[in-house]
Amino acid sequence: MAYGFTLTVDATASTLGSTEIAIKPFSMPTAAIDGGATSVLNGGGNLKAYTDSTKTTQLPVHVIKFVTGVTPDILWRTRLPSVAVGSTIYVEADEVQTTQPAASAVYGSQAVWQDAFTALMLTESSGTLFDSSPNGRDATPVNLGAGDYVTSGLFGNGVYFDNNNNYLTLGTQTLPHDLSFLAVFNPTTYRGNAPDYNDTLLSAGIDNNVNGAIQVNFTDGGTSIRYGGNSGIAGSAPALAQDNTIGITRDGTGDTGIVSVNGVSVTAAGKAYNDITNEVTIGKLQSQNAGATYAYHPHGTLSMLVIWDKTVSAAQHEYISGNLLATTSWGTVGTWADAGGGGGFQAAWVRRPSIIIGA
Fold it and tell me: N or C: which end of the chain has fewer CB within 10 A?
């Protein structure tokens, strides 16, 4: 008989659209991760998740790391159709399955990120940083040395920006008109708040005075999004020497923008803009050469970065931040008398016009 348990996720003030949920070891019972007889397999190969105890609807799963035993090291993600008070994930250590589905399979990892423009988990220890979405928008490192692939990120691995000349590029892209962004970043220092000095996390277009260009910047004075000639929508500054969630929303349809730092959001009027096709850079102002004074290279560790072609509300930014930064059980773990073996009809995922958030 397979072992099962439930996780009733943290409640929200209002029902949210379909949401990517990050699950860490403290949100799982010991018996599921201790390497014993009822544990999920080391590596997470037999981990399955559902929306109900009858296993009618299987959820996609993205196992990022799954080391069981006395000191488990675990991070996996699934995607709930919606999140509301009482939303529950039914999880089992399946007695038949031994490996996770292929990334492109119905319940594979790409289905978790199916509405992302790009989803960079930054788990690599060298070379290209791979996109977990179905789109293949991998990040190419520029001037990253071996020591810049670090293991000190929020979830383990990450990329260290040296405030000098290293960065990532997505190559030439047309960013979504309605765009949302999330990064987990631990700044070591700020560049300063001198005129035009910023730490740039995302950049596309020549500069912030060109329609369609976008910058996501922060300084010791705050965090901002600039686009379409807009002088900036400003939120609070990320704290030094700790992991921060930095989220933005560029709503071209509603003409608004949101800046959210650690779940605290500022919403303001944006400015109309035209879409452009240009290089997209992470960790450098796109228009400047690496190492230039105004290249705005940040200094610190990036643990993940996701871009969606959807708008994310302030309430959703808050929920994402709470999920990612939680250091104790995120939700309530319960028992499930799993009958074992899978089975039953498993509804396939259908792309729907709901908001996809989280990481």
Answer: N
First to last CA, the chain: 32
Q: How deeply is 276 buried, as exposed, middle or buried, from its count of CB atoms within 10 A (0-12, 13-18, 19+)?
A: middle
CA-based nearest residue to 179, from 306, 356, 309: 309
Determine the distance from the C-alpha atom of residue 203 to the mean position of all C-alpha atoms in its chain, rounded to a whole number: 18
Query: Is the Cα dihedral 230, 267, 244, 133 positive or negative?
Result: negative
| DSSP annotation of 220 | T
Beta strand 19-23 with 357-358 is parallel
Cα separation, 166 vs 129, whole angstroms: 14
User: How many other C-beta atoms lie within 10 A of the C-beta of residue 135?
Assistant: 16
Place of tokens 């960790």: 283
- Cα separation, 334 vs 320, in Å, equals 22
SS3 264: strand
Locate 66 and state its tokens. 């799954």
- What are the φ and ψ backbone dihedral angles of 24, each rounded to 5 degrees? -115, 170
Tokens found for residue 149: 């692939």
At 227-260, the pLDDT tens digits run 765 656 889 999 999 999 999 998 877 778 899 9
DSSP 293: G
Mapping DSSP to helix (H, G, I), strand (E, B) and coil, where does residue 320 land? helix
Q: How many CB atoms lie within 10 A of CB 147?
A: 8
Q: Rg (Cα) of the chain, in Å, rounded?
A: 20
> What's this model's pTM, rounded to 2 decimal places?
0.92
Strand-by-strand arrangement of the 19-23 sheet: 61-67, 73-80, 19-23, 357-358
Query: pLDDT per residue over 136-175, tens digit each?
Result: 999 999 999 999 999 999 999 999 999 999 999 999 999 9
